[in-house]
Write a structure and sequence with these properties.
One of its GO terms (cellular component) is membrane. InterPro entries: Mopterin_OxRdtase (IPR006656), Prok_molybdopt-oxidoreductase (IPR050123). This is Assimilatory nitrate reductase. α1 crosses α3. The protein is α/β, with parallel strands linked by helices. The mean pLDDT is 90. The longest helix has 12 residues. The protein has a domain of 109 residues: Rossmann fold (3-Layer(aba) Sandwich), CATH 3.40.50. 22% of the residues lie in helices and 11% in strands. The radius of gyration is 22 Å and the shape is globular. It has a three-stranded parallel β-sheet with strand order 1-2-3, with no helix packed on it. The chain has a three-stranded antiparallel β-sheet with strand order 4-5-6, covered by helices on one side.
Length: 233
């Protein structure tokens, strides 16, 4: 049981690397991402990681742009080997099931964290035996209410007491799914109430930045695309 909860949000990705670059953040653990490739201004990201006192990377590939800058690399499982949930942009939670054995010394990310915590003296708080146990705790925490944390959309407290068998049979569902609901929520804000102080939607008025006009002579058109390992984060 944590003695307290963070009351303010942490640094966003770009802000985090700015803080690393300036020396404010001196240690970083990178997991499930390759920021040297996916973040803007790759050279600055490299500079930040080179300046950082401790860079830990959990990776399923032996050699990546980010892993080359790491002080410590933990071999982790990848898609097809691990089990857990993923959530898409329309709030649908789906269970990802592993179908391949985890090779060599690689471990699931949550197992790596648990072993690290144990060696730091926090094993009692990280004694999870499965991804299902972590999901159940996550679900219970999503229903936590206080004066500061009562006004939010994410809530899957319906699954706070989910069993391993129920977790392994989990079907796709859209959050929120509160403990008082039988089915997920297909559409948010259908009641016209938003998560603001006055429950009204907030619109930001911006000035449009028009695209540059290509010269009539020697016109140049750039079209970007996506490949498997680079999705223009």
């Amino acid at each position: 049981q944590a003695p307290n909860l963070a009351e303010n949000e942490g640094l966003k990705a770009v802000d985090l690397f700015d803080a690393i670059h300036s020396g404010k953040v001196k240690a970083v653990w990178i997991m499930g991402t390759n920021p040297v490739v996916s973040m803007p201004n790759a050279n600055k990201i490299k500079e930040a990681l080179n300046k950082c006192d401790m860079v830990v990377v959990s990776e399923c590939n032996a050699d990546t742009d980010t892993a080359r800058l790491a002080n410590v690399i933990f071999p982790s499982s990848t898609w097809g080997e691990k089990q857990g949930t993923v959530t898409n942009s329309e709030r649908t939670i789906s269970l990802q099931r592993g179908f391949l054995p985890i090779p060599g010394e690689a471990k699931n990310d949550w197992e790596i964290i648990c072993e690290f915590a144990k060696n730091m003296g926090y094993g009692e708080a990280f004694n999870y035996a499965s991804a299902a146990e972590i999901f159940a705790e996550h679900a219970a925490l999503s229903g936590f209410k206080s004066e500061k944390f009562s006004n939010r959309a994410f809530n899957i407290s319906k699954y706070a007491n989910i069993t391993a068998k129920e977790y392994n049979a989990l079907k796709p569902v859209q959050w929120p799914l509160k403990d008082t609901q039988d089915t997920g929520t297909k559409r948010l804000f259908s009641d016209g109430k938003f998560f603001t102080d006055n429950q009204k939607a907030k619109f930001a008025v911006i000035e449009a930045r028009l695209p540059e006009v290509s010269p009539k002579k020697n016109q140049f058109i750039m079209n970007t695309g996506r490949i498997r390992d680079q999705w223009h984060t």
